Amino acid sequence: MDYKDIKQKLQSALSPKRFIHTLGVVETGIKLANVYNVDERKAKLSALLHDCAKNIPKEKKLRLCKEYHIFLDDIMLKDIELSHSFLGAEIAKREYGIKDEDILNAIRYHTTGRKNMSKLEKIIYLADYIEPNRIPFEGLEKIRKLAFENLDEAMIFALKNTLDYVKKRNKIIHPLTIEALKSLSFNNKED
Ligand SMILES: [Fe+2]
Ligand SMILES: [Fe+2]
Hints:
This protein is mainly α. The protein has a single domain, classed as Hypothetical protein af1432 (Orthogonal Bundle), CATH 1.10.3210.10. 69% of the residues lie in helices and 0% in strands. The longest helix is centred in the first third of the chain and has 20 residues, at 16-35. It is globular and about 40 Å long.
């Protein structure tokens, strides 16, 4: 499948709102890839497909996760929406023919993050966070600026912001998010 085919198939799988968000992530992902010397094509594909499972109805999400042997921990079982990134990676592989592991991981960890993220994973995480169609929220402008100055500092700020947001709403924090923050803080101290 070439990029055009993927884009067309994806458009029919997403709501118009989600598709517009996705195009924003593609635009921002390309810009960040150029700043940080990451393969632009990989950034484009990861961004395009990052939410490919988002609009699948809950029941079907659960069923597909079972079928594809995607492990759902207690937190994901309680908040099935969290599974869309893990399921998305699997669908990107099976339905859109993506084989590149870095692209698949960028899709897989775009919601929770994880420890030792690759540059591409960080770029997609941040592009998802700051794309131009996002409804303004506290900290957004700061992350928008930081993302183009220092990838790791932007990640640390964005992850902390997410943790605050989740805490305020009494939702459960995913351990992968804490691990992501820890590994970034640690690596940056060592520099
Ligand atoms: Fe997402
Ligand atoms: Fe997204």
